[in-house]
Design a protein that fits this description.
The chain is an alpha/beta fold and 382 residues long. Helices cover 42% and strands 17% of the residues. It is built from 14 helices and 13 strands. A 7-stranded parallel beta sheet has the order 2-7-8-9-10-11-12. A 4-stranded antiparallel beta sheet has the order 3-4-5-6. A two-stranded parallel sheet has the order 1-13.
Length: 382
């Protein structure tokens, strides 16, 4: 092992539970929900500041989305129903099989007040009409969730070459998210409808998952072929917060295994994002062939990190350890420091990538984040 590793070497070694020169620290920095006056200016608004001023590990993110059928069109408009507190935003997507439609309430804090993306956490609590409800909707959804076209793949190769040059300039990993499965179902059907379907009309949900899986498999193959260093499967809502362990085994696990195989076919490290609701499914997570688990929440949801470490960390890395909302957002510098010490006690030093999960928000006390980073520097040298 070299005495000093690049961030890329360190991250890949940690994800594979190999020796590292020191435990890496790679956090996401998210925009604030509290208003546009909060931003990262002068703190964590550029890769240069994050890597060279804060001294953290980081990544260059690359995206390869599903394709849309060339005959698909859409329109967006706003109405304000008489007597309603908020206006309602509508979007129609016209497919060869008929329209997909959605409507959401436009609240003051809505992140996308002029559009309704297919996948957005902001939609779910504001739905007047969700994107998907019936099998007919799911069949129409296929036209906006196609495997990448040859043209998309050619363009992706050019974009990835630029991303790779940028990553190499800083010695960082390239990173791509690929696949959402039941997380996407929560966003498109709405949480209540998706869970009801899983019990009352599972064929609808299974058809949806197969469509999403087919696009994910091709995206995974392309990302692997490009040489992306780390591919992340988003499973944020694929936990027992919504589904039983038996449902997860039956509906999801076979698809996940195929997706992981495709993602790692050319040597990429593969991670899985799960946050809360994982304790009843630890046996499933222990069996899945991911290299690491990203964003396990250590303070909320009555999750026992000592048990998590004992059940998962013989084969899997942990990318997390600190609660963003509790230890950084609502904490103090000493609380943030203690969270880092706890994370090292539970998971380190092999197979730990320290992070505040799921991210650090711009309106949270910056002194708490700085205390977290300072404690990490002290412990990594111990």
């Amino acid at each position: 092992m070299p005495i000093t590793m690049t961030s890329r070497e360190r991250m890949l070694a940690a994800l594979r539970r190999q020796p590292v020169d020191y435990v890496p620290c790679l956090c996401g920095f998210s925009a604030s929900l509290a208003g546009p006056q909060y931003n990262w200016q002068g703190r964590a608004d550029t890769v240069t500041r994050i890597v060279r001023e804060l001294g953290l590990d980081y990544y260059v993110v690359f995206a390869l989305d599903a394709s849309i059928h060339p005959d698909v069109t859409w329109r967006v408009w706003r109405e304000h129903p008489v007597g309603a507190a908020e206006p309602v935003l509508h979007k129609d997507i016209m497919t060869p099989r008929g329209p997909l439609t959605a409507a959401i309430r436009v609240t003051e804090d809505l992140e996308h007040p002029d559009d309704i993306p297919l996948n957005s956490d902001w939609n779910v609590s504001r739905y007047v009409k969700p994107w998907l409800q019936t099998m007919e909707d799911v069949e129409r959804y296929r036209y906006v969730q196609l495997p990448p076209s040859d043209r998309d793949i050619a363009a992706a190769r050019e974009r990835f070459a630029a991303a790779k040059r940028r990553a190499d300039g800083y010695g960082l990993i390239t990173y791509a998210s690929c696949g959402m499965g039941l997380t996407s179902a929560i966003q498109l059907f709405g949480a209540q409808r998706a869970v009801e379907l899983s019990m009352d009309e599972p064929a609808i949900l299974e058809c949806f998952l197969q469509i999403e899986h087919e696009a994910t498999m091709r995206r995974a193959e392309v990302l692997a072929d490009l040489g992306v260093d780390v591919i992340c499967r988003n499973g944020f809502y694929e936990t027992t917060d919504f589904w039983s362990p038996r449902q997860i085994r039956q509906m999801l696990v076979p698809l996940l295994r195929e997706e992981v195989d495709a993602m790692r076919s050319r040597g990429a490290a593969v991670t899985y994002t799960v946050c809360t609701g994982i304790m009843p499914m630890l046996d499933i997570l222990a069996e899945l062939p991911f290299d690491g688990y990203h964003s396990i929440e250590p303070a909320l949801g009555n999750q026992d990190m000592a048990i998590v470490a004992a059940r998962l960390c013989d084969r899997h890395a942990i990318w997390g350890g600190v609660s963003g909302p509790i230890h950084v957002g609502e904490g103090t510098p000493e609380i943030a420091r203690q969270a880092v010490r706890d994370a090292f006690c539970w998971f380190g030093p092999r197979g730990l990538i320290l992070s505040a999960v799921p991210s650090i928000r711009a309106h949270w006390p910056w002194e708490n984040a700085l205390a977290m980073f300072d404690e990490w520097r002290a412990l990594r040298a111990a």
